[in-house]
Amino acid sequence: MPKKPSILLISPYDLGRQSFALTQAAAWLKDNNFNVEQLDLSVQKMSGARLEKADLIGLYLGMHTSTRIALKALPKIKHHAPNATLFSFGLYAPLNQDILAQYGVRYFFGGESEPDILQLAKQVAGLTNESMRRSIVRTEKIDFKLPARDGLPPLSKYTKLIQNGQEEKTLGFIETSRGCKYICRHCPVTPIYKGRFRIVPFDIVMQDIEQQVVMGAEHISFGDPDFFNGPTHARKIILAMHKQYPALTFDATIKIEHILKHRELLMILKETGCLFITCAVESFDDDILLKLDKGHTREDTINAIALIKQAGITISPTFVPFSPWTGLQSYRDLLQNIINLDLINEVAPIHLAIRLLIPNGSYLLDLPGFTELIGHFDRDTLGYQWKHADRAVDKLQLDIMDVVEHADKHGLSRQQTFSNIWAKTHQALNLTAPELAVTQPKHVPHLSEAWYCCAEPTNEHINSF
Hints:
Layout: E1 6-11, H1 20-31, E2 35-40, H2 48-52, E3 56-60, H3 64-80, E4 85-89, H4 92-95, H5 97-102, E5 107-111, H6 114-124, E6 135-138, E7 160-163, E8 167-174, E9 177-179, H7 190-193, E10 197-199, H8 202-214, E11 219-222, H9 231-244, E12 249-253, H10 256-261, H11 266-271, E13 274-282, H12 286-292, H13 298-310, E14 314-319, H14 328-340, E15 377-378, E16 383-384, H15 391-410, H16 414-428, E17 446-447, H17 459-464
Parallel strand pairs: 1-2, 1-3, 3-4, 4-5, 5-6, 8-11, 11-12, 12-13, 13-14
Antiparallel strand pairs: 7-8, 7-17, 9-10, 15-16
């Protein structure tokens, strides 16, 4: 009988959380009696010894930052495991297959990729003669397993929930669905799932919550692209979770459009322990929102924020403030909207420095006239390059990023950081910055790793590897 291969699954980066996709793939392989180890580069070092014994190595590339880090890791992987078969899976695997292939990666799986990972393992083991395509994107339903989390570091090593400015709680990470039924143009989910989403069965979700509570989870972060893609499914889960673990808190990501459509669920979210909702606001400019195909307007955002606040839940808005359509004045208008809506403490400063990312396969490329605004595809940064028509906008973005990184390094408050961004913006406009009202510091619940999956990594992310 052929010898089962030694398999190593690697997550380069997943927002500082214990990866659902990695542990789901491990569960599929373990259920078929394969020897599987898992490695999370955000909290573990990559040792030559672990690489050398691997026959099959898989890299989970669920976001841009993880793919950039993978490119830095691959030379070491090839050096220590020259004979191993390398594969990649996740949203960014098929989209970057030509580049990954140059680093020795042979297979590229996207979407519901676990059946393909299992088939590849059987092929490497000599258990099947069936040939495989090198690149497969699968969106049909699969049978989800209980994630195999025992092969990773304890939850205490990962991102924390921060409350009251300093109190830390251990974070569990759950996905109740994958994919998304919307096609926002800048989103990396869109080119792979194309408006489809798949539900993780209720029983699997509840068992995963249970095992993470046993592992020490005090707060659950729901990582679905949109928690209300299946609102009935989401409601059932949070009611059951609260009944079983009444002290457990949670957060979720929900579209502005869904906040308005399912407003009756907001009080249920509050009553079952929801501390904050992440909303991809992206912009207050209706023209930009239309280009991104976000499905909401500035007025919708204002109404949704009011509803969330009325429910007693914190909103954590995300933005893509710098794009080819952003001007100095429109950036100032963004800041003014944040002031007017009393969101200074709710906005993670990094979200005021992000440049629009245009990866391979982006639906932005189908936008009429868009390709005229961008340059070549950069194989090192894995994105199409663009420069603003007004060079002062690009300079401001770099200045804002410096402000944000300085604030993070020196532990400045969000209020102080915003004040510095406000001043820097007016300096770019050759204006005197109006004084901001002095308010009492407000500590909002948030995660210790405040980053955005569709953004370029900071220098800290790359250098930390």
